Structures are given as structure tokens and as C-alpha cells.
Amino acid sequence: MRPCMARRFVAGLGIVGCVMVFGGGNVFAQQAVAENRATTDGRAEDVFARLVTVRLDRVTLKAAVQAIASNTGIRVQYHVALLDAVQTPITIHASQVPLGKVFEQLLVGTQLTAVALRSDVVSIESVRTSGRLLGGVVGRVADAATKRPISGASVSLDGTAFRTRTGDDGAFRITGVGAGTYRLVVRRIGYQVYSAPVTIKDDGTETIVATLTAAATVLNDVVTTATGDRRRFEVGNAVGMIKADSVVATTLIRNLSDLLQARVPGVIVSNTDGAVGAPSKIRIRGISSINLNNDPIIIVDGVRLNAMTTVAPLQTTSGSVTTLGQLSTSYSANSAPPLAPSRLDDIDPNTIESIDVLRGPSASSLYGTDAANGVIVIKTKKGQAGAWRLSVTGDAGLSFVPGRMPDVWRGWGSVAGNNQYWVCYLAAGQGVGTVADGNCHQDSVTHFNVENYGPMKTLGTGTNRSLSGSVAGGTAGWQQFFSARASSNVGMAKMSDVERHVIAQLWSVPAPSWMVHPNTEQDFDGSSRTTVNVSPKIDLSLTTTGIYRNVLNGGSGIQDQNNGGVTFRPEDSLAYLPSESQRTRVTSAETRGTLAGTVDARPWGWLSLSGTGGGDYGLRSDQSDLQAQYCSALLQTLQNGTASPCPSGHVVSRGNTFVTTTNGSANLSFSPTAWLNLRTAIGAQYSHTRYYNLQVGNNYYNFCTLAFGSTLLTPEPTCVDPNMPKYLLTESRDEAATAGVYFEQTVNLFGLYTTVGVRQDLASAFGGQISKSPPNYPKFNFSYPLSEQSFFPKQPYVSSLRFRFAYGQSGNQASRTAVINQYYQADLTLAGSSVTTPGIVVGTVGNATLRPELGTEWEGGVDVSFLDNERIHLETTLYRKMTRNMLSAKQLAPSLGNYSQYTNLGDVSNRGVEVGVTAKVIDARVMSWDVTVNGARNSNKLVRMAPGIGVNGPLNTQFREGYPLYGYWGLPVGSYADANGDGILAQNEIVLGTMTYLGAPYPKAEVTYGSQLGLLDGALRLSVNLNQVLDKVTPLVLSNPTYIPRAAVDRTTSLAQQAAYLQAVANNNTYYGASSSVRLNEFSATYTVPISLVRRLHAQTLAITLAGRNLGLWSNYVGKDPNVDTSGLLSEASQDNTLGTPQPRSWTFRFNLGL
Amino acid sequence: MPMFTLAMRYTTRAPLGRMLPFLIGLAACSPAKLVDTQNPGTVVDPSLIQTAVGAAGLRTTAINAVMAAGASGAFDTVIGMSGMVTDELGDWFIAGASGDDRHLLDQTKSINANGYGYRAIQLARVQIRQARQALQAYANNTPSVPRAWQGEMYALEGYTVVWLAELYCSGIPLSSSSLTGAQVLSRGLTTQELFTVAVALFDSAATAGADSARFVNLARVGKARALIDLGQFAAADSAATGVPTNFVYTVPSAVSGGSYFSFAYFESLGYFRVHDHEGGNGLEWSTDPRTGVVTVPELTGTMLWPAKYNVDSATGTPQPTTNQSYQSFRLADGLEARLVQAEAALALGNDSWLTTLNTLRSTCVGSAACAPLPGLTSTSLPPLTDPGADTRLDTLMKERAMWLYLTGHREGDLRRMAHVYNRDPETLWPTGTMVDPAYPPNFPNPGPENGLQFGSDVVYGPDTHEQQLNPLYGGCYDVNP
Questions:
Q1: Which residues of chain A have a CB within 8 Å of the CB of B41?
Q2: B123–chain A Cβ distance below 8 A for any pair
Q3: What does the pLDDT look like over B15-57, one tens digit per residue?
Q4: Domain boundaries, chain B
Q5: Topology of domain B3-213+455-469, per CATH?
Q6: pTM for the complete prediction?
Q7: Cα–Cα distance, A389 to A869 (Å, whole number)
Q8: Contacts of A964 (CB under 8 A, 6+ apart)
Q9: Is a pLDDT exceeding 70 seen at residue A712?
Q10: Secondary structure of chain B: what % helix, strand, coil (to 5)?
């Protein structure tokens, strides 16, 4: 035996020991390059540490060895026959890689090994030359994310005939392998190929745990279903995905509504107002119901949340206090009260990792009775094993009014017999006479809008500031994530300069800040997410969140058209006196806590169990405070003509919402053969929502002073008028629950995934007795990822291809009040009596035979990727959703007593197409360019309505068979001619047609265009997002002083414009023209600071972003903003948006620092 | 392969329908309880209705529903509707909506075709029925819930039927909706059938309310009213005989929590006015103290405002009527009983008619003996003399009109004059060219009705919702007076 003078390099394990080196002789070849001769000094194993650069393409092993020797100057000795026996072509590209690693790559799976003989000499030898015993490798394959075993995975030792397949528990075993270093390769559809070296010793068994990471392809995304996480290609329905983590990091996302807007085809997010804190309306694949909620349900980490966007307005003292969005309008009873903030927007978007949107019953069947409008499944960020990472993000930005507001036009003149100055309309309007009928002699035309005139502007510059941070880290057994956020937003609304001046003069003190900036929002959030891997078979996770959000939305700007109105006569200074609505401070504060806990257990490989429980508790506190101290006798005298007392009033409303969720499910899987996999899921789900509200207050006209202490009414209020009730106390409570069990069976047969399932539900609105034939919600879908099949030709053009089809049903339940006979308490205080008499009012008649609205949907689609690496990916989905048993409060014959009754009385159809395209136009290291186009078209139709049903909506909305819900109807322009040639189209010179369908309040189609450009090796990323909305009717109401068009007063306008105006006058003073728009929705530029600079700050990463939102709008809509809908939450019909604030144009600077 | 066995059991041996109850049982011992939620807090527990307290509560709101239908609104309540279509009130502001122009059957013009008033009356009728049913079923004769309340409910229901008969065309359904929600739709009843139903209800009221003279008298006056509408004068006289002249039944406003007396359109804008000699046939209201009409000075003239429902409690002076949440609405009184008797006497050829009228004129203005109209301080009016056979009826009807001004009787009176006494409607209702009453300077132009022609309708037409929603209802049988 020769002395131990060399060390064997074992791929992947480094130097493992001293081995015998066989002799050389002529059986060995040697390679040397003189000019690159290595030193002979030092240890032999140092040769493997030498950095080499190699680039070989499909060469033999021998050629590769020779090339390496030639390039590095070391000598390599080998037996020619050994190298010639290896025929597998070798491709290796390596730059400045240790030589040992290069040999590892070369020799894996060859039964050969490299041995360092000297610091410049390497020998390649057979591992079997000693005739050692055979060994083996056993192990388990699991999902890297879920830790769940993966069955049916192919396991092989690369380059050998050793291969097997994992069982249901993910386990595998390969035996009879000679000692040596091999490459273990694991393949499974939907996952990246796992490859790792493994050294098998003589008579030894290696144990390997292979964790597979989902392949970074669209089809392999993990999506959430009611029965657990699934690979997208296994699921037959389309799932909209938003990778929130990356979107939020580089885009100006103010809230969850922003995050959902224009990112998933078929999901329409409508803004109600541009004010801070204003809610948005989210509709998925159209609307299906007249009387029930069309909101999707929200699931966060498995727990249902109160995320209703359709919520009651803020309480006000008088019911006529305007929202901040209605700045340039009047203080009048026609003004809508401020809408309450959406509870969906309470959620901090910084804490979200991803959002899955299940768009309808075909996807949401197993969510049951409440899920017909779709399900938004939110996954929050979790901690990761490894070093703790601190991330700090700061935002600061400004928001502005986007352009000029439309002018209000006025014609001025005189009326015979009167010496006052009057408004003169051409042919029709709110005046005392018209030019056309000769009763008003017009002498001038003016146009004006308060918002276009500096001293009077009530929309200025808003600000937003936010600081958030997160800490994440942990060990293999415990991961933790903490986050916190504080943000402060100031809306564009402001008190006009003129008003501020007047107030300072009247009160001798400046107006309080809440009057000057009456629309603000503050958010404080904190969350914690803990994941504990109790054992390889049990994981626990616990999420807790605390939220405080306060929105001030009161004290509007210029008011009171009765005093002239600023657009009526600007010189009327009384218009700028602070009105009661301005002196009313309306706030809505939400204090909220959520808890979600999940246990995942995998007792056996074929069985996994999951249980989730949690709750969402919210306390909403609204206050509306009309403050007498911001009033004066002088002000009252100026406004009312007499020195009446300054009114005051106070309403407090406190509402609790408590949502609890309990889920339990079991998944069983079984793979009897390589071509068959069965998975069974059973589970139960329970959701319960309880709402309680208490409102206490007095009306301002009672001039009472209320003191709200801990018991609300201590001390007793005092009133100027002792006969007035001192306060009103209103209590309301509601409750809803669903409980369901489900079963789902998935069969993977030769790569064709077929799933059938059903959920049976009990729902509170329809009775709790199972004998009442609780509804069943079946589902069926199949997915066929054709490109994953072995027979699919490997070619460079189509990289993935999948066909899918899904069918499913889910429901929508009414309030319990729809089922029971309703009697309301209405205590009366009768004239002449000081005693309150208990009274009971008979309300609506219940209907015990109601069924839930039943949504039945089918969809089919194709997902296809072109070129390598999915350079172009296309998803197309066709769907049809039929909602039967549509519930509506059917009017009863008046002779029955003016009752209405909930009845299943109609069917609604939504059909459409959704297309999504992503393209990596340029995919180079120095530059990348991605383009995304998402488009959706929806056609809504009331298919059937029970005969004799008269259901009419607000304004000109109607419900007619064959037309969309909430369709607008009006009189079209038939013909017109200026018969007398006076240039004015009088009302008798136009002929209007019969009542005609004019359009719908929601768009027929929406297309989003996104472009992401990466420059400077990806350090600079530019992103643009445009949103196109097609054929949406946003009514434009003719109103003094908010909107009067030029055609109303100016005879120089065309007859066509005058005809359109007269048509609007005839149609409830409203334009109902369909409009289309393109909005430059988002722009962002993010620069990732080079690491060398960041480390000088002792940080890991630093990115700075400049993001803009709503930077441009191109539309044929002449109002403020076609996508603002001031009262749309309470009805699907858009309402007068002349009252609303347009969406602001915003710029924000952001930094993200990683430590 | 235990797993395989388990999976196959699910799919092959146990149908889903049999498994689900088992699974539900796993989820909870009593899954039905999981979703057995409470009724919303805004709703009274239905079981409360089945108690005396609940029945009493229903009665309270039923009475308030009479206020809602009778006087809580301008032109969509009994007082307003009766006043607008007749000569009691004039409208200068709302073209073709209030009924003032007598285009009552043109559903494109009359907002009453949409049934605001009709609904209110029917709602009151059904609520009264339900309250009576509750009283009968759940309230024994106790001091707090006397049996006589049942009689009151019968009587009030009778008045709602009389209203329907007097205001609307022939063919009004009286559907029913029980406390439990059971609904029975009705065909349209002719005007005569309606009055007959009302008479029966008043008879039931007198029986059930026998313990209360007040409710008995309420029933008597109502019955007398229905009977003269039927032309059954002797029976009407008999019904009214026992009613003392100082009897009065008022429906109070709810200061809070319910409907109250409201003539919103008499507010400062003054859309509705008292109109003397409206349409030529109209009476002169402003000069008779019984109407309580006041003259309000304006910059360019004067306006006539009804004031009888707004008497200053301190001075006793009538004020222009606006919203009066303290004001009661007089549904029936002894005055009307006497007036019915006077009319019956005239119709039956009894000279006592004039005596009766003069007695009222001499004793009932400002006298406690006649349940005086509040605020009318005159002690007497000069006696009437017999005008002769041709105009006796006009004299009597004018007396009724003045005594019962703005109480919802005028339309019934004119219809009776046409239907029972065969007068030409065009000599009763306003006709010719409409002339707006005086308008204030804030509205320099005449109102939209000025210069238009009165229509020829004399009754309110079919309710469009009733036509749409009641398959048994086909509209008016006739639109005769």
C-alpha cells in the first residue's frame, strides 16, 4: 500500500478522506499545458479549490477532461477506457468555479470519481475498482411550501437505470447501487426538477428528503380552493391571481380596493368618490341580484372577514349633511349622506402576499350559500426560516384635482314686469321663463365653476404619509412575521380661502383644522403571524391583527344654493358663510381585531387534516357633531334673516360586527399506479356573522345639548324646547349563519384531472332544519394539461397547453327578515299627551318558502404558453352564469295593505369572455420588457321576471326582461328642426321617441394594459398600467349649481347639442349617454440601489419608488369622472356623479429598506 | 392499503345523501342550531303580537294610520284629494298632478294614479283589521284593553271603506291580509257594495263597542254617512239620531314616532291655496267663519290660506296652516250627525231640515254644546230662510260644505248631488278655464295650470299598482259620480 498521499474529492461532499491511488503506467493519459503550469507546492486537495472557467457544449467526457486540463494547466490522469465508456454528452458552462465543482458536474452518475494526487495533478478513477458491496438510497419527497408528501413523483439516479416512483406518503427506495456519487433526480408535474448529488457508500443506505418547489410557470401556481391548496393545472376553473407582494412594493396602492382594481379580468372595481376613505364597489362577472348583496365574500388565511363594501352611510345629525365629495354642490336634502368606509379597505395591503379571486359558482361551489358573487381569498405574508430580516417602508405623497371641472353655464336676463335679474334658459330649465317662449329676455351668458377659481376652490392638495415595517425570520421549526403600519391621509377637500377669511372675521379666530381639511384618514395596524412546525407531521399557524382606522368626513365646503350659490351669482358673499353641514364633524372610527389559527396534520402520507378557526371583531363608532360653538348670532342673522339660536346636535352610533369561522377538512390521496391518482376531500365549514348597532342622538333642530359619557346619556340632555324629545335611541341587530359539509373527489387519470364535489348547506335565512331540504351545491370540473403529457411533442413553439372546463353552483342568502313576518315597534307620543304609547307597525310579510338565490355557472377555457420559458402566455375563459330564484321584495297589491314580500321571482344571466395575455417581449439580463393585457366583457340580462312584478329602481332604472339589471331607460331624440329659425330649439320643435333602453351603469367591457420595463440589469423597473372602460353609463344630472351645459343657455350651440339637452330635461333632467374612457391608472419607477452602496448603510437592500396614480383620463364623458359613483353602493345603479369628487391624481415617493 | 379501502368505501358503498347527515353529525351534535339565529333586533318578536300588549300596540298604530291616510299629506290624503278635485282648494303649481284640474283618470298626468292616497287608505284599512283581529284573539276585556276597542276598530275600518267609496271609481277591491300573513285578494267592489260593506262594519262596531258611547257614536255617524251616500235617508236619519251634537272623535297626530297632520304644500311656498268660486261652480270660502280661512297679505296682493287646523293655543286665533304635529284630525262629530239628519229631512220632505241648520248656525260656533270648531269665536250666524224648492239642496250642501270644510267630505257630497239628486256634474265641480289663485311676487309667472281647461273627471281612477298586482282586479266598473 502506498502512503496516503492523495485525497479523493467526492462531489458535493468535499474531501472525505484519504484513499489509495492506483498506479499510472500507460493505461493512463496525462494532459498538461506548459504555460498554465500549476505550482506543485501546497496540499494535494488545493487543486480542487482552483477557480476555473469552462464552456463546453455536448462533448464527450474525455474531450471535456482534456479541455479542462488544457485550460487550467493541471495534469489529469485517467484510464482511457473508463472515460470512453461514458457516452452521455456533456454540457457545462462555468465561470470562476472551483475545479472540484466542475469535476462534480462532469462525473455525476458515471461511477467515476476524481482524486487529487498533488496540488496540480488529478486522477479520474472508477469507484468500483475495489469491488465494494452495493448500497442504496431511500427518502421522501415533499412539497417545499406545504410540506405535504408528493405522491407519484419520478425518482432516478441520473445516467443509470435506477428509478422508482414515490408512494402516497411521498416515500421512495432505490437499492442495489454501487458505491459512488450520483445525481438524484426527482420529477413531478408542476414542480421544478429536483436534482442533488448523493453519495452511496458500500453496503450503506443514504437517506434523502427531497423538497420540490413549484415550477415557476403559470400553470404551476398554487391556488387556494375550499379543500386546500392545489396546483392551478389541477383545477378546472380559472383563478385570478394577484401577487400582492410585488404589486404593493412598486405601485401606489392605498388600500385593498386599489390592489384589486384592474388586475384580474372580470373584476370591476368602481370608486364611489375621490375622497379619502371613500369605499369602492367590487363586482365580479356582473351583478346577479336586485335586492341582495352583490359583494363577494372575503377569506383571509382561511377565516371569513367582514369586508362588506355595501355599508350604511355615516350617521348625520340632520340627514342632509353632505359628504366631502360633494364640495361644489349644495347643502340640501338631495345630497347623499357620506358613505361609510369599506371594511375591506381596513386591511393593510402591505401584509398581503397574494390574492386569489374565485370568480363565480364554478369556482366557489364548496364555499356554499354566500359565495355566488365570488370569493376573494387572501393569503398574508409569513415568516421564513433563516436570518431575521427587517423591512421598513416609508411613503410620502401628494394628490391633486385632475384638471378643470366642467363649467356651469348661465344665461341672464329680465322678465317682463319684474325688475330683478333672472336666469334665462333657452327652452327649458329651472327658470321662470325661457328665451324661446319670450318670457325671458336674455342679455348675457356666463360660465363658471367654483373649483376652477382659486379663492373659492374647495378641492386643493391632499397629502399621504405612511410608515410601515415588518420583521420576519425564524428557524426550521418556527417562523415569525411581525408588521406594523401608521399612515395619515389628508384628502383634497378644503375650506375655500374666501370662507376661511369670512370665518376669521366672524369668529375672530381661525376655523379649526377639521373644518379647513375636513376629510382625513388615520390608520394604525399591527399584525403577527406565527408558524410552528411541531413535527414533520404537524404545523401550526396563528395570525393576529389589530386595526384602528379613523375617517373624518364632514364639514363640507361651499354650500347652500338658497343663498345664491357660487355658480349662480359669484358676487353673493353670503354663499361663503359656513353652513350647518360645514360645522358638522362626521367621523367614523373602526377598531378591529382578527384572529386566525390553523392546524395542519399529516399523520400518514395518504392523509392530511386541516382545521381552521378564527374570528373578526370590529367596533365601528360614528359620530356626527353639529357644533354650536362654531356659529354666531351674526351668522344666523345673515343666513336666516333672524337671530335664531345656533343649532347643535349630536348622533353617536356604535356598531359591533363579529364574524366567526370554523373549518375542518381531511384530504386523502391514493396512487395505485403511475397513471392514476385519487384524492378525496371531506370537510365542514361554519360561518356566523352577528351585527349590533346602537344609535343615540338628537336632531339639531331640537336645539338640545347632549352629553355623551360612558353611559351615553349621562347627564340627561337639555333642550330649548322642553316639548321636544331629548334624544332618539335606535337599536338594531342582525345575524346570519351558514353551516355546510362538503365532499370532493379528484381523479388524475393519465394526467386528466377530473373533480366532482358537492356541498350541502344550512343557512339561517332559510331555516335550520335539515328536513327542509337544504340546498346542495354540486361542482364538476376537469383540467387537462396536455403539454405535461409524455406524448406532447417537445418543440420550441408551444411550451404549455391546457384545456379546462368547470361547472358549479353556489348561493346567496337573504336576511332573515325576508322569511319572517316583520313587526316593528313604533312608540307614539300623541298630541295632547305626555305619555308615550307603545305601538307596533306591521311590516313586510315573510315568506317561509324562500330559497337562496342559486347561481349556476359553467366556464371553459384554454391556457397556452408560447416559446421557451413561457415567453407568451394566454388565458381565455368563456363563462355563463345563470342566477335563478332571484330574490326581490315583490310589491303586493295595495289592497293587501301596502306590504311587500320577498319572493323568488326572476332569473338573471351573466355571460362573458375573459382574456389575459402576458408576454416577455425582451428577456435579457440588461433589459427586460413585460407586457400584460387583461380584458373582460360581460353581458348582463334579466332573463325572466315573474309576471306582474313591478320593481323599479332609482331615477330611470328599470328591470325589464331581456335587458340588463338596472338598465337605464329614457326618451330618445326622434327628430328636431328649428322651425322658426331663431336658432333655438324650443320644446315644440323636438320630437322625442318612446321609452328606450339607453345603457347600463356598469361597463360592457374593461381592458387593462400593463407594461413593465427592466433596465440596468433589473435595477431600474418602470411600470405603466392603463385601464380602458367601455360603454358605461354614468348619469350626469342637470342641476343648479353643479352642472348646467352650455346648450341650455347659449343659442350659438348646435341644434344637436340643444336637442341632447332637451332630451336630458325630458329624462329626469339627466344625461344617460354611454361613455368610454382610458385612464393612465398607474405609473411607477423603482430603483434598486446597488448592494455596494447599500452596505455602506449597513443594510441589505434599498429600493426607492416614485409612483403615480390616475395620471391621465381620456373620455367622452363630460362630467367630473366617469368612474365615480356617489351613491352606487346602496344601489347598483350609478347616481348623480356631479356631486362627487373626481379620483385624485396622486404622486408618491417610497423607500423600502431591508436590514 | 387501508387508505384505499377507506376511499373506496366513500365512493362505492355510501351514497352521498347517506353520508351527509353523518358528516353533519360529526360537525356538530345539532347542526340546525348552528344556523338558528335570532330575529333582527329591529323586529318585534312575533310572539308578542299574540298578547294583549301586542294587540294594544297594533291598535295604536292603526289609529295613527288613519291620520296618515286622512291628513298627513297634501294632495295624497283624504282631505287633500277631496279638496283638490272639488272647489275647496286650488293648485297653481303642479300641473296635472294634484287632481285639481279634474284629469283624474289620465294616468300619465295624475300622480294619484300611482296610488299614494289609495295605498294609505288601504294600509289603514288592513292595519285596522289586523288590530281588531289581534284584539279579538288575544285581548280579553280588561281595563287596559277594553272590549270596546274592537268596536272602535270596526268603525275606523268602516270609515276607510267610506273614503274609498267616496273618492274612487266603482270597483275597488277590499283584499285582506291576516296577522299571520295569509293573503286573500279581492275583486273590485262597486261603490254601492262598498257602502254596504261599510254599513255592516259600522253595525259590528256598534255591537262590539257597546260599552263605549263614544265608539258607538263614531259608528253611528259613519253609518249615517254611508247611508245617505246610498240614498237611504230614513235609515241615515235613524242612525244619526242618537248622536249628541257635542260628540267628536278626533284622530291625534303623533308628536313623534308616527304620522302627524301635515299640509306640506301649504307651507311658505304656498302651492295650494283656498280658491273662492273655483271653476265658476265653486263656493266662496273666505267669507265664512266656519272655514277658518285667513287672508295673508303679500307684496302684490293677498293670499287665502286655510287656517282651521292651526289655531294658536294662546290666542285662539287661526293661523295659516302648515305642518301641525300637534293638530288632531276630526273624523266624525255631532255636527255631521245633525247635518245628515237635515239632509234626510229635506230628502224626505220634512221641513225640519231648515230648523236643524239654523240651530247649528245659532248655537254651534264657539259653543261647547256643539263641540265647537277650535278657534272659531263667533257665537252665531244669521238664520237661513227657505230659498225655495229649487235651491234648498244647494243651501243645505253649502251648509255642509262650510261646516265640514277640509274634512274630506266635499267630494262625497258632490258625488251624492250628482248620483242621488241627479245634478249635472258640470254644475257641481269646477269647470271652464283654470285661473290660478293669487301668486306671490317670488313667482312672477302664472303657474302651469293657468289657462288650461278643467277636465270632466269626477272620481279618482284605478290604481295602477292594484291593476298590476291584483289579478282579480280589472279596473273601474264605471267612473260615474
A1: 692, 731-734
A2: yes
A3: 444 444 444 454 445 667 777 777 666 667 777 888 898 899 9
A4: 3-213+455-469
A5: 1.25.40
A6: 0.75
A7: 31
A8: A939, A940, A941, A942, A1000, A1002
A9: no
A10: 45, 10, 45
